[in-house]
Structure formats: C-alpha cells, structure tokens
Specification:
With 147 residues, this protein is an all-alpha fold. It has helices at residues 2-40, 45-84, 89-99, 108-124, 126-134. It has one domain. It starts with a helix and ends in a 13-residue tail after the last helix.
Length: 147
C-alpha cells in the first residue's frame, strides 16, 4: 500500500517545499524593491518617498500573506509526510486540498492542483482508507506498547 501513496505524498511534499522557497524569494524581492527603484533612477526623490510611505501598509499585508503561505506550505509538507507513513488520513486529505488553493500554496496552479487531485484520488480509494485505518505505517507494525 505504501507504493500507492508514495507518489502523491512526495508530490505534496514538493509542493510545500516549493511554496516555502517561492514565498521567501518574494519576501526578499519585496524588501529589496525600494533600493532597486533608487538604483534605476526612474523616479525623483519625492516620488520615491511617496511610494515608500504608501508601501508601509503593503509591508504588513505582505508579511501577513507570507505567514499564511508559510503555514500552509508547512502543513502541506506535514500532510505529505503523514500520507507517506499511512497515518493521519484527515491530515493528508486537508493537505491535498490546501495544495490546490493559491493562498496556501504559491505554486498551486502549476503543481498544487495536479498533486492535490492525485492525492485525493488515492486517499479516496477504499483499500488506502483501510490501510490508514489499520495504521499499517512502517513503524506501526513493529511498535510495542510499554508495559
């Protein structure tokens, strides 16, 4: 059963990692924008100051959006890891759904939608559901309760 979930689980993990990387790159680029604008010398000092004053509200929004994407991407990675271990079926399902939503995964259109659909199709399979219900992850079968 692990072979059946491995592909979509890895796809979810990749979507989550790419989401984090793209989000960090966006934050770096937006923080560098004022210095880039100054170096291009396309605007006079008054225009630059006006853009910077307007940008302070944008900074808060950018930061809030970045936190949302980072949290969503981290959850998608976690859900993919749970799926690979055949644990946490609801977590894996939510991660697959989040991977398809652009505000939780910055690469939703390119990779998140197909990865999310693939994961949902696999998770909906009755045999896969049964494997999750049995807790047939690789570590669960060797686990012994402490007595």
């Amino acid at each position: 059963m692990q072979d059946r979930v491995k592909g979509p689980a890895i796809a979810l993990i990749v979507v989550g990692i790419l989401g984090i990387v793209v989000d960090i790159m966006n934050l770096v680029a937006s923080s560098m924008m004022p210095s880039i604008m100054r170096s291009l010398e396309m605007f006079n000092e008054e225009q630059l100051q006006q853009m910077e004053s307007m940008g302070s509200g944008q900074t808060v929004m950018n930061l809030a959006g970045a936190v949302l994407v980072l949290a969503g991407s981290a959850f998608i990675i976690f859900g993919g890891m749970q799926m690979m271990k055949l644990r946490g079926w609801p977590i894996a399902l939510v991660a697959a759904i989040l991977a398809m939503i652009p505000c939780f995964s910055s690469c939703a259109c390119l990779l998140g939608i197909p990865a999310g659909i693939w994961a949902i199709i696999v998770l909906a399979n009755p045999e896969v559901k049964a494997a999750f219900a049995q807790g047939s992850g690789p570590q669960d079968s060797n686990w012994q309760s402490p007595t």
